[in-house]
Amino acid sequence: MSAHKRGQTWEARWRVGTKQHSKGGFHYKKDAEKYEAQQRSRIKSHSFVPPKRAKVTLQELTDEWFDSLTTSERTRSDYMDIWIRSIQPEWASMRLEHIRPDEVTRWVRTLRKDFSPQTVRKTFSVFKQILDLAVSQERLTTNPAVRAKELGGKGFLPSPKSSKATLVLNHRQVADLAEASGPYRLMILVMAYTGVRFGEVTALRARDVEIGDRRLHVRRAFTDIKGRLQLTTPKSGESRVIPIPNFLVPHLMTQLFELETPEDLLFTAVKGGPIRYRTWRKSFFDPAIRATDLKGFTPHSLRKTYASLSIQAGVNPKQLQEALGHSDIRLTMDLYTSLYEADRDGHAARLSEAAETVFSEKCSQNVRNAGTGGPDPWSRLGDLNPGPTHYECVALPLS
Questions:
Q1: More confident residue, 137 or 86
Q2: How many CB atoms are located within 10 Å of the residue 334 CB?
């Protein structure tokens, strides 16, 4: 216990991390000790709220949070829509000190009745991020959203897994789709073999393509915000560099020769200017999907196709994360773990292929040794020795 005499009254003192808190004015020592014990209990149960700093409303905190965001304008707009639609009506006027894990749990149950699993997860994520700011500012000791999730257990949030697996294409299917896309053949190939998003590929300029180094620089993206096309940073908020497969280089060179300045867009609408998603999809992509019988495949599925083909080619998760522009490798693994699992046999085949030459050479050396009086690998077997006529080189991998 930590009760201290201050003049004619007693003061309770307790510490949270490196910060000391206190409350005075108790007439009796036992009352100060009782109050101090209550605060320690609240700290242990994640319900302690520092005085004064937690008296701001969630609306005030959210205003600060939006000011601190470094995401793209599209992401910011999405977050704002989520705040206005699902969070603001319930929480805007509530002080931080009054937000409790059990109230968060009740709110999430309500969301699950009115919204899709994906929307519920996105809404909870935004809510948690806002309260993370309160923790970083020492307005809250712990995040009530995190505590609610811990108490709610595995089923607290709806599963992110879709009941319908996203279709991914093989190389032949990518080629067929590209051919059916008319003037946007190369754009389809770039999306499938670099993993760039639609908004990123349509914002590429001539200067973003380095033919000599075979590198693609993703520096910006077009974003449609409520019908208005804006040029923003990529979704991650940062630019990135992606290797260009060799077979795409001559096609990109041909495209570049048709442009006049380094600032020209690499891909444009038929009549010039930036490509708008809805128009492009209706006029070119969807007809190509019907022509190739790839029902259910979307432009964004080309991104997952890139991940699938990269994994088949032996690209490691870290390289894939960097190419896709994910800020955290855990996101890459969460999204594409199933693809790595599905390629187990492929990994084994590539390992076997890498070892084939060495083992084949070793086997040939054994045969030569046997014919020249060299070391006999069968000699140690004694009577089981089948003799040199039984030497046989087996080509790897074994089938």
A1: 86
A2: 11
Distances in whole angstroms, Cα of residue 357 to Cα of each of 21, 24, 347, 351, 395: 70, 80, 17, 11, 9
Closest CA to 160 of 120, 118, 129: 118
Query: Per-residue b/e over 233-244, b at no fewer than 16 CB within 10 Å?
Result: bbbbeeebebeb
Using CA atoms, how far apart are residues 229 and 222, in angstroms rounded to an integer? 6
Mean pLDDT of all residues in 319-323 = 78
- Interstrand relation of 19-26 and 9-16 (parallel, antiparallel or unpaired): antiparallel
Q: For residue 3, what are the β-bridge partners?
A: 12
Helical ranges in 157-264 per DSSP H: 171-180, 185-194, 198-201, 249-257
**Ordered structural domains, the chain, with CATH:** 3-44 (no CATH), 55-152 (1.10.150.130), 171-342 (1.10.443.10), 354-378+390-399 (no CATH)
pLDDT beyond 50 at 378 = no
pLDDT score for 333:
65
Confidence class for position 360, pLDDT limits 50, 70, 90: low
Q: Classify 45 as helix, strand or coil.
A: coil
3-state secondary structure of 224: strand
